[in-house]
Each structure stands twice: as C-alpha cells, then as structure tokens.
Amino acid sequence: MATATKSQKQAYQRMVKHHLPARPLFKNALRAFVIGGAICVVGQLVQTFFVRWGHFSVQDAANPTVAVMIFLSAVFTALGVYDRFAQWAGAGSAVPVTGFANTMASAAMEHRSEGWVTGVGGNMFKLSGAVVVFGVVSAFFVALIRFVIVHL
Fold this sequence. Notes:
single chain; mainly alpha; 7 helices
C-alpha cells in the first residue's frame, strides 16, 4: 500500500474543508451557556430545598446537593435521556458534576458485561480519569500559588 504524498494530503484537507458545513458557533455557544446555566439553576433549587425544608445551613447543604445532582445524572444516563440531551445541549451539559457523573455511568454501563471488577471497575475511570488527574494536579498548583501569596 502506497502512502500519500504531502501534496496529496494537503489537497485532501482542502477538499474536506470545502465540503464541511459551517458550524453555527454563536448558536452553539449560546445554547451551551443557557443549558449550563439551567443545570446550575436546578442545582441551586436542590440546595434551596435542603436549606429551606431540610433545615441545613447553606454550607451543610452543599454535599447532599452534589449527591442529588450526581444521582439525577446517573439515573438520566441509565434511562438514555442524558445522552440525547447532551447531544442537543452540547458543551452546556458538561457542567462538572453532571457531566462527570454521566461519563462514569456511561462507561460503567458499557462495560458491565465484562464483570464487576475488570469491566465496570476497570473501565469506569477511562474517560473520567483524566478529569480526576488534571483536577488534582490543578488543585495542587492553585493551592501552591495561594500558599506562596499568603505566606510572602
């Protein structure tokens, strides 16, 4: 099998670029902003519920609020609703807690036939593992910068 030359690759790239439909960037950005905000509003409503009717302080309501949002995301993923919603909503559905829960639940569901340990446990963090790693690393550097600023 012959490999393509550099000029053939460039010609192909020009042809692909010519035939690709224009992406509606403003529309996609607006939709992501509105949907991401709507998910945050739902989270705020859940927190308000815990504060008002559960008699939690605002700070104490944070953990159960996150747990409810993770639970809702996992349930909607299991029902197949979240994936269709995410395809329509775009980046707005990747609000950290719900998007993270969606990737974990999707990977777990996809590999459940391989068993609990090697299937679910071994593959659940493949997509979301990078989020955990970069989250921990960035948190370390932010804490380091804060430490330097406060102690100098």
